[in-house]
Protein backbone atom coordinates (compact mmCIF):
# COMPACT_ATOMS: atom_id res chain seq x y z
CA UNK A 1 0.00 0.00 0.00
CA UNK A 2 1.28 3.44 -0.89
CA UNK A 3 1.56 6.26 1.60
CA UNK A 4 0.18 9.72 0.93
CA UNK A 5 2.44 12.64 1.82
CA UNK A 6 2.16 16.37 1.17
CA UNK A 7 4.82 18.63 -0.33
CA UNK A 8 5.10 22.02 -1.98
CA UNK A 9 5.84 21.10 -5.62
CA UNK A 10 8.43 23.90 -5.70
CA UNK A 11 10.50 22.07 -3.06
CA UNK A 12 11.31 19.12 -5.30
CA UNK A 13 14.98 18.35 -5.89
CA UNK A 14 14.23 16.89 -9.33
CA UNK A 15 11.37 15.80 -11.58
CA UNK A 16 12.03 12.78 -13.77
CA UNK A 17 9.79 10.80 -16.14
CA UNK A 18 11.43 7.41 -15.59
CA UNK A 19 11.05 5.73 -12.18
CA UNK A 20 14.39 3.89 -12.34
CA UNK A 21 16.18 7.11 -13.27
CA UNK A 22 14.46 8.87 -10.34
CA UNK A 23 15.73 6.18 -7.96
CA UNK A 24 19.25 6.48 -9.40
CA UNK A 25 19.25 10.29 -9.07
CA UNK A 26 17.86 9.97 -5.55
CA UNK A 27 20.69 7.63 -4.61
CA UNK A 28 23.22 10.16 -5.91
CA UNK A 29 21.62 12.97 -3.88
CA UNK A 30 21.53 10.69 -0.83
CA UNK A 31 25.22 9.83 -1.20
CA UNK A 32 26.13 13.53 -1.38
CA UNK A 33 24.02 14.47 1.68
CA UNK A 34 24.27 11.54 4.07
CA UNK A 35 21.93 12.98 6.73
CA UNK A 36 18.94 13.80 4.55
CA UNK A 37 16.27 11.16 3.85
CA UNK A 38 14.72 11.36 0.39
CA UNK A 39 11.30 10.45 -0.93
CA UNK A 40 10.47 9.58 -4.53
CA UNK A 41 6.81 10.42 -5.03
CA UNK A 42 4.22 10.93 -7.72
CA UNK A 43 1.15 13.16 -7.73
CA UNK A 44 -2.18 11.67 -8.82
CA UNK A 45 -2.12 13.43 -12.21
CA UNK A 46 1.63 13.82 -12.62
CA UNK A 47 3.58 12.17 -15.39
CA UNK A 48 6.88 12.68 -13.58
CA UNK A 49 8.35 11.32 -10.37
CA UNK A 50 9.42 14.03 -7.95
CA UNK A 51 12.29 13.72 -5.49
CA UNK A 52 11.84 15.50 -2.18
CA UNK A 53 13.75 15.72 1.07
CA UNK A 54 11.53 13.95 3.61
CA UNK A 55 12.03 16.81 6.07
CA UNK A 56 10.18 19.12 3.63
CA UNK A 57 6.84 17.31 4.10
CA UNK A 58 3.94 19.63 4.89
CA UNK A 59 0.64 19.19 6.73
CA UNK A 60 -2.34 18.54 4.44
CA UNK A 61 -3.96 21.86 5.32
CA UNK A 62 -0.90 23.94 4.32
CA UNK A 63 -1.74 26.41 1.53
CA UNK A 64 1.03 25.19 -0.81
CA UNK A 65 0.77 21.46 -0.11
CA UNK A 66 -0.12 18.96 -2.81
CA UNK A 67 -0.74 15.24 -2.19
CA UNK A 68 1.84 12.76 -3.49
CA UNK A 69 2.01 8.98 -3.30
CA UNK A 70 5.32 7.74 -1.92
CA UNK A 71 6.89 5.30 -4.37
CA UNK A 72 10.28 4.85 -2.69
CA UNK A 73 12.17 6.07 0.37
CA UNK A 74 15.94 6.50 0.43
UniProtKB/TrEMBL annotation:
Organism field: Limosilactobacillus walteri
Source species taxonomy: Bacteria, Bacillati, Bacillota, Bacilli, Lactobacillales
Stated name of the protein: Uncharacterized protein
Amino acid sequence: METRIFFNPGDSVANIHDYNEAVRKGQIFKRERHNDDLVIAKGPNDKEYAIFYAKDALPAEHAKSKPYEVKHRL
